[in-house]
Amino acid sequence: MRGAWSRLGRRGRRAVVVGTIVLAALTVLFLAVLDQVADESGRVGRGEAQLEVIVAFLLAGGLILAAALLAGYWVDAAFSRQRRFVSDASHELRTPLTAIRGQLEVLSRQRSPDAAEVRRVEAIVGGELTRIERLVDELLALARLDEAAPLRMRRFELGPFLRGFAESEAGAGVVLGLSPAGTLAADPDRLTQVLRNLVGNARRHAGPGGRVEVSAAARGGRLAIRVDDDGPGIPPAERDRVFDRFHRSEAARGRDSGGSGLGLAIARSIVELHDGRIRVEDSPLGGARLRVELSGFEGEKPLT
Predict the structure, then answer these.
(1) Can you spell out the DSSP letters for the chain?
(2) Confidence band, pLDDT 50/70/90 cuts, at residue 226
(3) Domain count, the chain
(4) Do residues 62 and 26 make contact, with C-beta atoms less than 8 angstroms apart?
(5) Backbone angles phi, psi at 210, to 5 degrees
(6) Residue 122's domain spans which residues?
(7) pLDDT digits over 122-157, tens only?
(8) Fewer CB within 10 A of the terminal residue: the chain, N end or C end?
């Protein structure tokens, strides 16, 4: 019992205490009503009236206490997620700030640094500032998604949309595979953001000279957009966690992958706003396949 109370958390315990106080107040009210019923009821029907009051009290009290327990768990879980998010964000920001501070301290200890050293420090600091800027932008994007910002839904041709995206990413080695002819009802700007995040993740894992392919297929009213890479793939044990905020695989943590650990979390949030789903599969290219499934497609090509 003590362990369960401890796991409930401070805010959860507070909610239970409030619920208990409300329940105690109802008990007092119940006793007063019961006395009133006893005074106003005759001998005939007194027991039935009291029984009805008791049953009503027990139901109301039980519901209030259950609501307090559920609210306590929910509130504490929400605050726990918020604390973890703030802690992770602080850690991610502290890393580039520490690098910037270190480089500036090295430069300040030199009385007359040469131009090459200044350019070296400038390049490192500029890169870390870009990393901070990208992280802040992604944090703001997640905050807006958490507020369920409205989508700008419209119907558009899928083929030109995917070709335009592939052409914009062609310099990064992204190729477009097969895709169905038809129209999709979605927010094209948000869907572009999803594809950029998935392609960015695939490109980092594919490595220099690796292959990243975007393709799509459909069946009925559902569309599957696939992003494949020929990298090392994602182990089955990590496939559910890769969409968690600030999650990075051990391979990515061991090198400067350039990722913040937020891209896939943002992609999942956008997909879920579309009432879709996203998951990881094995890719026929040998690496990982990130698969987005959306409804609202009108076309003919079968889903594969």
Answers:
(1) -HHHHHHH-HHHHHHHHHHHHHHHHHHHHHHHHHHHHHHHS-STTHHHHHHHHHHHHHHHHHHHHHHHHHHHHHHHHHHHHHHHHHHHHHHHHHHHHHHHHHHHHHHHT-SS--HHHHHHHHHHHHHHHHHHHHHHHHHHHHHHHHTTPPP--EEEEHHHHHHHHHHHTGGGTEEE-----EEEEE-HHHHHHHHHHHHHHHHHHH-TT--EEEEEEEETTEEEEEEEE-SS---GGGTTGGGSTT---HHHHTTT----S-HHHHHHHHHHHTT-EEEEEE-TTSSEEEEEEEE-EEE-PPP-
(2) very high
(3) 3
(4) no
(5) -75, 165
(6) 89-146
(7) 888 887 787 777 777 777 776 666 666 678 899 999
(8) N
The structure tokens listed for 238 are 């990590």
Which of 80, 108, 124 is the endpoint of a domain?
80
Kindly state whether residues 192 and 256 are assigned to the same domain: yes
Domain boundary among 146, 168, 186: 146
Query: Whose structure tokens read 């300040």?
Result: 108
| Residue 154: Cβ within 10 Å count | 11
Q: Is the pTM of this model over 0.90?
A: no
Q: What are 191's two structure tokens? A: 């869907």
